[in-house]
Predict the 3D structure of the following.
Amino acid sequence: MAAPISPLLGYTALGLLVLWRVFTRFKRAIGPQRLSRYRAPLTFAIYGPLLLAVLWALAPRPVLIAELLGFMAAGAALAAVALRQTRFEAKPGLLTYTPYKPIALGLAMLFLARLAYRLVEVFWLAPEVHRSAREFVSSPLSLGALGLFAGYTLWYTHGLAAWRRSVIAAKRAREAVNR
């Protein structure tokens, strides 16, 4: 009989994934960033399954699903404000943007602080209490932080992709006229 895999392994993997995303978010919020054509598909590929897993874990509690979706809508509204403040630059062969720092850094710090508090609570303050993934995502504070961060990231990424498409369409239109 194989030994069961410890839940700690899953929590550690999830924690490392989230810390990596938070680190990249901090790094992106500091200054001008090159806009890659792979950014949007990669972001959606990561957040899609993550959010589906959270929604699946919340299926027995529709109130928490509504809370998550509400916080995601609030995060999307913050992203819309941030997109209006973002500085976009299109140079030949290079698309860059400079994110609006206060909102991006604030949300990243909020999410990181909530995650850190939750990890301290689980592994240091009460390590003897059995925890489940469902309990982790059913915390209203964790859902709020996740919803804000996910809504912001998804909507901001959507806005970046839309700007990229418009720049490429304008370039193609200019090239068609010049032919």
Observations:
- Strands lie at 33-34, 87-91, 94-98.
- Helices lie at 7-30, 39-57, 62-85, 101-125, 133-137, 140-178.
- The chain has a mean pLDDT of 84.
